[in-house]
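Class prep. Write one:
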Amino acid sequence: MNNIYTTIESCRICESNELRDILDLGDQAPANSLYRDIEEAPPSVPLRLIFCENCSTVQLGEDVDPGYLFSQYLWVTGTSKTAENYSYKFATEALAKIENQSIKNPYVVEIASNDGTFLNRFIERGCKVLGVDPAKNIVDLAVKKGIPTICNFFTVDLANEIIKKEGKADIIFARNVIPHVKQIHSVIDGISTLLNTDGVGIIEFHNAGLVLDEKHYDYIYHEHLFYFTLRTISGLLQRYGLNVYDVIYSPISGGSWVVYFSKIKIPKSGKLIELENQDEENAINSYERWLEFAEKVEIHSEKIKQIVFNENEKIPAYGASARSSTLLNYCGINSDHISIVIDKNPLKAGLFTAGSNIPIVSFDAGLPEIKKTNKILLLAWNFQDEIINDLREAGFLGEFIIPLPGDPYIL
Protein backbone atom coordinates (compact mmCIF):
# COMPACT_ATOMS: atom_id res chain seq x y z
CA MET A 1 0.00 0.00 0.00
CA ASN A 2 3.00 2.34 -0.17
CA ASN A 3 1.77 3.63 -3.54
CA ILE A 4 -1.04 5.63 -1.92
CA TYR A 5 0.82 8.94 -2.35
CA THR A 6 2.79 11.02 -4.83
CA THR A 7 5.13 13.98 -4.31
CA ILE A 8 4.11 17.16 -6.13
CA GLU A 9 6.54 19.00 -8.40
CA SER A 10 4.53 22.21 -8.94
CA CYS A 11 2.02 24.35 -7.07
CA ARG A 12 -1.51 22.92 -7.10
CA ILE A 13 -2.98 26.39 -7.66
CA CYS A 14 -0.72 28.25 -10.12
CA GLU A 15 1.53 25.39 -11.37
CA SER A 16 4.71 27.28 -10.44
CA ASN A 17 7.83 25.21 -9.72
CA GLU A 18 9.02 27.76 -7.16
CA LEU A 19 8.26 25.67 -4.07
CA ARG A 20 10.15 26.06 -0.80
CA ASP A 21 10.16 23.81 2.29
CA ILE A 22 8.65 25.15 5.51
CA LEU A 23 8.25 22.28 7.98
CA ASP A 24 8.86 18.52 7.95
CA LEU A 25 6.67 16.67 10.46
CA GLY A 26 8.13 13.29 9.53
CA ASP A 27 6.54 10.20 7.99
CA GLN A 28 3.08 9.65 9.48
CA ALA A 29 0.10 7.39 8.87
CA PRO A 30 -2.85 9.35 7.40
CA ALA A 31 -4.65 10.77 10.42
CA ASN A 32 -8.02 9.05 10.00
CA SER A 33 -6.63 5.65 9.02
CA LEU A 34 -7.59 4.08 12.33
CA TYR A 35 -7.50 0.28 12.57
CA ARG A 36 -8.75 -2.65 14.67
CA ASP A 37 -5.61 -4.72 14.72
CA ILE A 38 -2.01 -3.58 15.27
CA GLU A 39 -1.03 -5.93 12.45
CA GLU A 40 -3.21 -3.86 10.09
CA ALA A 41 -1.36 -0.59 10.77
CA PRO A 42 -1.46 1.73 7.70
CA PRO A 43 1.59 2.88 5.73
CA SER A 44 3.35 6.11 6.62
CA VAL A 45 3.47 9.10 4.26
CA PRO A 46 5.78 12.16 4.41
CA LEU A 47 4.04 15.12 6.06
CA ARG A 48 5.74 18.26 4.71
CA LEU A 49 4.54 21.85 4.55
CA ILE A 50 5.73 23.91 1.57
CA PHE A 51 5.31 27.46 0.25
CA CYS A 52 4.71 28.66 -3.34
CA GLU A 53 6.85 31.71 -4.08
CA ASN A 54 4.60 32.69 -6.98
CA CYS A 55 1.08 32.74 -5.44
CA SER A 56 1.97 32.43 -1.69
CA THR A 57 -0.22 29.34 -1.23
CA VAL A 58 0.92 27.13 1.66
CA GLN A 59 0.30 23.45 0.94
CA LEU A 60 1.52 19.89 1.53
CA GLY A 61 4.32 18.37 -0.48
CA GLU A 62 2.50 15.06 -1.02
CA ASP A 63 -0.89 13.96 -2.40
CA VAL A 64 -2.53 10.94 -0.77
CA ASP A 65 -5.05 9.05 -2.90
CA PRO A 66 -8.47 10.67 -2.13
CA GLY A 67 -10.18 7.29 -2.38
CA TYR A 68 -7.98 6.01 0.45
CA LEU A 69 -8.69 9.08 2.59
CA PHE A 70 -12.39 9.67 2.04
CA SER A 71 -14.30 6.63 0.74
CA GLN A 72 -14.90 5.58 4.37
CA TYR A 73 -14.88 8.40 6.89
CA LEU A 74 -14.94 8.60 10.67
CA TRP A 75 -15.83 12.22 11.48
CA VAL A 76 -19.57 12.71 12.02
CA THR A 77 -20.63 16.37 12.33
CA GLY A 78 -23.64 15.62 14.53
CA THR A 79 -21.47 14.20 17.34
CA SER A 80 -20.18 17.71 18.17
CA LYS A 81 -22.41 19.99 20.24
CA THR A 82 -20.33 22.97 19.12
CA ALA A 83 -20.94 22.16 15.44
CA GLU A 84 -24.62 21.43 16.06
CA ASN A 85 -25.14 24.79 17.82
CA TYR A 86 -23.15 26.68 15.20
CA SER A 87 -25.22 25.18 12.35
CA TYR A 88 -28.21 27.38 13.27
CA LYS A 89 -26.21 30.60 13.01
CA PHE A 90 -24.57 29.42 9.78
CA ALA A 91 -27.94 28.86 8.05
CA THR A 92 -29.36 32.18 9.27
CA GLU A 93 -26.33 34.12 7.99
CA ALA A 94 -26.36 32.30 4.63
CA LEU A 95 -30.04 32.94 3.93
CA ALA A 96 -29.65 36.61 4.85
CA LYS A 97 -27.02 36.97 2.11
CA ILE A 98 -29.38 36.06 -0.77
CA GLU A 99 -29.70 39.20 -2.89
CA ASN A 100 -33.06 38.19 -4.36
CA GLN A 101 -35.18 37.90 -1.21
CA SER A 102 -38.24 37.07 -3.34
CA ILE A 103 -36.96 33.50 -3.63
CA LYS A 104 -39.27 31.63 -1.27
CA ASN A 105 -37.62 28.20 -1.27
CA PRO A 106 -33.93 28.60 -2.10
CA TYR A 107 -32.11 25.63 -3.58
CA VAL A 108 -29.13 24.86 -1.32
CA VAL A 109 -26.25 22.52 -2.20
CA GLU A 110 -23.56 21.47 0.26
CA ILE A 111 -20.24 20.02 -0.88
CA ALA A 112 -18.92 17.39 1.57
CA SER A 113 -22.22 17.41 3.43
CA ASN A 114 -21.24 14.64 5.88
CA ASP A 115 -24.29 13.47 7.89
CA GLY A 116 -26.40 16.45 6.75
CA THR A 117 -26.42 18.32 10.07
CA PHE A 118 -25.98 21.71 8.37
CA LEU A 119 -28.36 20.98 5.49
CA ASN A 120 -30.99 20.06 8.06
CA ARG A 121 -31.03 23.67 9.23
CA PHE A 122 -31.99 24.75 5.71
CA ILE A 123 -34.69 22.07 5.44
CA GLU A 124 -36.19 23.43 8.66
CA ARG A 125 -36.44 26.81 6.94
CA GLY A 126 -38.28 25.41 3.92
CA CYS A 127 -35.36 25.16 1.51
CA LYS A 128 -34.83 22.51 -1.15
CA VAL A 129 -31.44 20.87 -0.44
CA LEU A 130 -28.90 18.49 -1.91
CA GLY A 131 -25.76 17.08 -0.30
CA VAL A 132 -22.69 15.68 -2.05
CA ASP A 133 -20.22 13.51 -0.14
CA PRO A 134 -17.84 10.68 -1.15
CA ALA A 135 -18.04 8.63 2.07
CA LYS A 136 -20.67 5.93 1.62
CA ASN A 137 -20.97 5.14 5.33
CA ILE A 138 -21.68 8.81 6.13
CA VAL A 139 -24.00 9.31 3.15
CA ASP A 140 -26.09 6.37 4.37
CA LEU A 141 -26.52 8.17 7.71
CA ALA A 142 -27.67 11.35 5.95
CA VAL A 143 -30.14 9.55 3.67
CA LYS A 144 -31.66 7.76 6.66
CA LYS A 145 -32.26 11.20 8.18
CA GLY A 146 -34.18 12.24 5.05
CA ILE A 147 -31.46 14.42 3.50
CA PRO A 148 -31.01 13.81 -0.25
CA THR A 149 -27.32 13.13 -0.80
CA ILE A 150 -25.21 12.07 -3.78
CA CYS A 151 -22.37 9.70 -2.90
CA ASN A 152 -19.56 11.08 -5.04
CA PHE A 153 -16.73 13.59 -5.20
CA PHE A 154 -17.93 17.02 -6.32
CA THR A 155 -16.49 18.06 -9.72
CA VAL A 156 -17.46 20.31 -12.61
CA ASP A 157 -18.87 17.24 -14.40
CA LEU A 158 -21.10 16.43 -11.44
CA ALA A 159 -22.16 20.08 -11.26
CA ASN A 160 -23.40 19.86 -14.85
CA GLU A 161 -25.33 16.66 -14.05
CA ILE A 162 -27.00 18.39 -11.09
CA ILE A 163 -27.99 21.35 -13.29
CA LYS A 164 -29.66 19.01 -15.80
CA LYS A 165 -31.74 17.37 -13.07
CA GLU A 166 -32.35 20.16 -10.55
CA GLY A 167 -31.22 23.47 -12.07
CA LYS A 168 -28.73 25.95 -10.62
CA ALA A 169 -28.28 26.58 -6.90
CA ASP A 170 -29.12 29.73 -4.95
CA ILE A 171 -26.67 28.83 -2.20
CA ILE A 172 -23.62 26.55 -2.46
CA PHE A 173 -21.49 26.00 0.60
CA ALA A 174 -18.41 23.98 1.42
CA ARG A 175 -17.38 23.83 5.05
CA ASN A 176 -13.85 22.80 5.95
CA VAL A 177 -13.43 20.80 2.77
CA ILE A 178 -11.83 23.02 0.11
CA PRO A 179 -8.42 22.67 1.84
CA HIS A 180 -8.85 18.87 1.45
CA VAL A 181 -9.38 18.82 -2.29
CA LYS A 182 -6.82 17.38 -4.70
CA GLN A 183 -8.89 18.24 -7.80
CA ILE A 184 -9.21 21.81 -6.56
CA HIS A 185 -9.70 23.45 -9.96
CA SER A 186 -12.52 21.11 -10.96
CA VAL A 187 -14.31 21.78 -7.65
CA ILE A 188 -14.09 25.59 -7.87
CA ASP A 189 -15.05 25.45 -11.55
CA GLY A 190 -18.00 23.26 -10.51
CA ILE A 191 -19.11 25.78 -7.89
CA SER A 192 -18.96 28.59 -10.46
CA THR A 193 -20.91 26.45 -12.95
CA LEU A 194 -23.64 25.40 -10.50
CA LEU A 195 -24.14 28.78 -8.80
CA ASN A 196 -26.93 31.09 -9.98
CA THR A 197 -25.89 34.49 -11.27
CA ASP A 198 -27.33 36.16 -8.16
CA GLY A 199 -26.55 33.21 -5.88
CA VAL A 200 -24.37 33.05 -2.78
CA GLY A 201 -21.22 30.93 -2.50
CA ILE A 202 -19.75 30.14 0.91
CA ILE A 203 -16.45 28.53 1.86
CA GLU A 204 -15.37 27.88 5.44
CA PHE A 205 -11.69 27.20 6.07
CA HIS A 206 -9.28 27.16 8.98
CA ASN A 207 -7.66 30.54 9.56
CA ALA A 208 -3.98 30.25 8.55
CA GLY A 209 -3.24 33.31 10.67
CA LEU A 210 -4.23 31.30 13.75
CA VAL A 211 -2.03 28.42 12.62
CA LEU A 212 0.86 30.88 12.75
CA ASP A 213 -0.08 32.88 15.84
CA GLU A 214 -1.26 30.00 18.04
CA LYS A 215 1.00 27.22 16.67
CA HIS A 216 -1.81 25.03 15.33
CA TYR A 217 0.59 22.54 13.77
CA ASP A 218 -1.80 19.74 14.76
CA TYR A 219 -4.05 21.05 11.98
CA ILE A 220 -1.43 19.90 9.48
CA TYR A 221 -2.32 16.41 8.26
CA HIS A 222 -2.67 14.59 4.94
CA GLU A 223 -6.32 15.49 4.37
CA HIS A 224 -5.47 19.20 4.55
CA LEU A 225 -3.60 19.88 1.33
CA PHE A 226 -3.98 23.68 1.60
CA TYR A 227 -3.56 26.30 4.36
CA PHE A 228 -5.42 29.26 2.93
CA THR A 229 -5.32 32.91 3.89
CA LEU A 230 -7.95 35.46 2.83
CA ARG A 231 -5.63 36.53 0.03
CA THR A 232 -4.91 33.06 -1.34
CA ILE A 233 -8.54 31.84 -1.18
CA SER A 234 -9.66 35.03 -2.96
CA GLY A 235 -7.00 34.53 -5.63
CA LEU A 236 -8.20 30.97 -6.26
CA LEU A 237 -11.88 32.01 -6.54
CA GLN A 238 -11.09 34.92 -8.86
CA ARG A 239 -9.66 32.46 -11.39
CA TYR A 240 -13.25 31.25 -11.88
CA GLY A 241 -15.06 34.58 -11.87
CA LEU A 242 -16.02 34.42 -8.20
CA ASN A 243 -15.61 37.50 -6.00
CA VAL A 244 -15.22 37.43 -2.21
CA TYR A 245 -17.18 40.29 -0.59
CA ASP A 246 -17.71 39.42 3.09
CA VAL A 247 -16.36 37.29 5.94
CA ILE A 248 -17.48 36.11 9.39
CA TYR A 249 -15.77 34.14 12.15
CA SER A 250 -16.51 30.46 12.84
CA PRO A 251 -15.67 28.64 16.10
CA ILE A 252 -14.91 25.38 14.27
CA SER A 253 -11.38 23.91 14.20
CA GLY A 254 -10.22 26.33 16.86
CA GLY A 255 -11.01 29.31 14.63
CA SER A 256 -12.06 29.51 10.97
CA TRP A 257 -13.13 32.08 8.38
CA VAL A 258 -16.38 31.88 6.44
CA VAL A 259 -16.10 33.84 3.18
CA TYR A 260 -19.08 34.83 1.03
CA PHE A 261 -18.62 35.24 -2.71
CA SER A 262 -20.69 35.78 -5.83
CA LYS A 263 -20.48 35.94 -9.61
CA ILE A 264 -21.56 39.57 -9.58
CA LYS A 265 -19.21 42.14 -8.04
CA ILE A 266 -20.43 43.26 -4.64
CA PRO A 267 -18.44 45.89 -2.71
CA LYS A 268 -16.21 44.37 -0.03
CA SER A 269 -17.50 44.70 3.51
CA GLY A 270 -15.62 46.85 6.00
CA LYS A 271 -14.85 43.71 8.02
CA LEU A 272 -13.23 41.98 5.04
CA ILE A 273 -11.10 45.02 4.19
CA GLU A 274 -10.02 45.34 7.83
CA LEU A 275 -9.00 41.67 8.06
CA GLU A 276 -7.14 41.75 4.73
CA ASN A 277 -5.16 44.75 5.96
CA GLN A 278 -4.37 42.97 9.23
CA ASP A 279 -3.07 39.95 7.30
CA GLU A 280 -0.74 42.17 5.29
CA GLU A 281 0.53 43.90 8.45
CA ASN A 282 1.18 40.50 10.04
CA ALA A 283 2.90 39.21 6.88
CA ILE A 284 1.02 35.90 6.96
CA ASN A 285 1.55 35.49 3.22
CA SER A 286 5.35 35.67 3.55
CA TYR A 287 7.77 32.75 3.50
CA GLU A 288 9.78 34.24 6.38
CA ARG A 289 6.76 34.26 8.68
CA TRP A 290 6.13 30.56 8.01
CA LEU A 291 9.77 29.71 8.73
CA GLU A 292 9.39 31.40 12.13
CA PHE A 293 6.36 29.18 12.71
CA ALA A 294 8.40 26.05 11.96
CA GLU A 295 10.97 27.02 14.60
CA LYS A 296 8.20 27.57 17.19
CA VAL A 297 6.68 24.15 16.41
CA GLU A 298 9.93 22.38 17.30
CA ILE A 299 10.14 24.24 20.62
CA HIS A 300 6.47 23.51 21.39
CA SER A 301 6.88 19.78 20.81
CA GLU A 302 9.69 19.65 23.35
CA LYS A 303 7.53 21.42 25.93
CA ILE A 304 4.56 19.06 25.55
CA LYS A 305 6.89 16.04 25.75
CA GLN A 306 8.34 17.31 29.02
CA ILE A 307 4.85 17.50 30.54
CA VAL A 308 3.56 14.12 29.31
CA PHE A 309 6.79 12.14 29.73
CA ASN A 310 7.17 13.33 33.33
CA GLU A 311 4.07 11.41 34.40
CA ASN A 312 4.92 8.37 36.53
CA GLU A 313 2.32 6.21 34.83
CA LYS A 314 0.22 6.15 31.69
CA ILE A 315 -2.56 8.74 31.55
CA PRO A 316 -5.76 8.80 29.50
CA ALA A 317 -6.37 11.29 26.70
CA TYR A 318 -9.56 12.71 25.26
CA GLY A 319 -10.38 13.19 21.57
CA ALA A 320 -9.24 10.82 18.81
CA SER A 321 -9.46 13.69 16.32
CA ALA A 322 -7.47 13.79 13.10
CA ARG A 323 -5.48 16.73 14.41
CA SER A 324 -4.47 14.74 17.50
CA SER A 325 -2.74 12.25 15.22
CA THR A 326 -0.22 14.84 14.03
CA LEU A 327 0.49 16.02 17.56
CA LEU A 328 0.97 12.50 18.94
CA ASN A 329 3.16 11.25 16.10
CA TYR A 330 5.35 14.34 15.74
CA CYS A 331 5.93 14.50 19.52
CA GLY A 332 6.52 10.75 19.84
CA ILE A 333 3.64 10.33 22.31
CA ASN A 334 2.21 6.82 21.99
CA SER A 335 0.83 3.80 23.83
CA ASP A 336 3.88 3.85 26.11
CA HIS A 337 2.60 7.11 27.59
CA ILE A 338 -1.18 7.16 26.99
CA SER A 339 -3.45 4.35 28.25
CA ILE A 340 -6.58 5.13 26.18
CA VAL A 341 -8.11 7.86 24.07
CA ILE A 342 -11.75 8.56 24.89
CA ASP A 343 -14.02 9.66 22.05
CA LYS A 344 -17.80 10.02 21.75
CA ASN A 345 -17.85 9.08 18.07
CA PRO A 346 -19.22 5.49 17.97
CA LEU A 347 -17.39 4.82 14.69
CA LYS A 348 -14.03 5.12 16.46
CA ALA A 349 -14.61 2.93 19.53
CA GLY A 350 -12.55 -0.27 19.41
CA LEU A 351 -9.98 1.14 16.98
CA PHE A 352 -6.35 2.22 17.47
CA THR A 353 -4.92 5.68 16.82
CA ALA A 354 -2.94 5.97 13.59
CA GLY A 355 0.76 5.45 14.19
CA SER A 356 0.70 5.93 17.97
CA ASN A 357 -1.27 2.67 18.53
CA ILE A 358 -3.41 3.85 21.44
CA PRO A 359 -6.77 2.09 21.98
CA ILE A 360 -9.82 4.30 21.45
CA VAL A 361 -12.78 3.76 23.75
CA SER A 362 -16.26 5.22 24.12
CA PHE A 363 -17.06 7.83 26.77
CA ASP A 364 -18.85 5.29 28.97
CA ALA A 365 -16.09 2.71 28.63
CA GLY A 366 -13.53 5.34 29.58
CA LEU A 367 -15.30 6.45 32.77
CA PRO A 368 -13.58 3.91 35.09
CA GLU A 369 -10.19 5.13 33.82
CA ILE A 370 -11.23 8.76 34.26
CA LYS A 371 -12.22 8.21 37.87
CA LYS A 372 -8.90 6.68 38.90
CA THR A 373 -6.60 9.26 37.30
CA ASN A 374 -5.74 12.81 38.25
CA LYS A 375 -4.64 14.04 34.83
CA ILE A 376 -6.02 13.88 31.27
CA LEU A 377 -4.36 14.98 28.03
CA LEU A 378 -6.98 17.01 26.13
CA LEU A 379 -6.18 16.26 22.48
CA ALA A 380 -9.42 17.78 21.12
CA TRP A 381 -8.51 21.13 22.70
CA ASN A 382 -10.57 22.99 20.07
CA PHE A 383 -13.70 21.70 21.88
CA GLN A 384 -12.19 22.41 25.30
CA ASP A 385 -15.19 23.98 27.05
CA GLU A 386 -17.60 21.29 25.86
CA ILE A 387 -15.31 18.41 26.86
CA ILE A 388 -14.28 19.80 30.24
CA ASN A 389 -17.95 20.33 31.11
CA ASP A 390 -18.76 16.71 30.12
CA LEU A 391 -15.87 15.29 32.16
CA ARG A 392 -16.61 17.40 35.23
CA GLU A 393 -20.23 16.23 35.11
CA ALA A 394 -18.95 12.65 34.89
CA GLY A 395 -17.02 13.16 38.13
CA PHE A 396 -13.47 13.91 36.96
CA LEU A 397 -11.84 16.20 39.55
CA GLY A 398 -8.25 16.20 38.26
CA GLU A 399 -6.19 18.37 35.92
CA PHE A 400 -6.22 18.80 32.16
CA ILE A 401 -3.08 18.99 30.04
CA ILE A 402 -3.99 21.54 27.35
CA PRO A 403 -1.50 21.23 24.45
CA LEU A 404 -2.74 24.16 22.35
CA PRO A 405 -3.40 26.96 21.39
CA GLY A 406 -0.08 28.59 22.20
CA ASP A 407 2.23 26.92 24.70
CA PRO A 408 1.03 23.79 26.55
CA TYR A 409 -0.23 24.25 30.10
CA ILE A 410 -2.04 22.44 32.92
CA LEU A 411 -5.56 23.53 33.85
In short: Residues 82 and 385 are 10 Å apart (CA to CA). DSSP finds 13 helices and 19 strands in the chain. The mean pLDDT is 90. The radius of gyration is 21 Å.
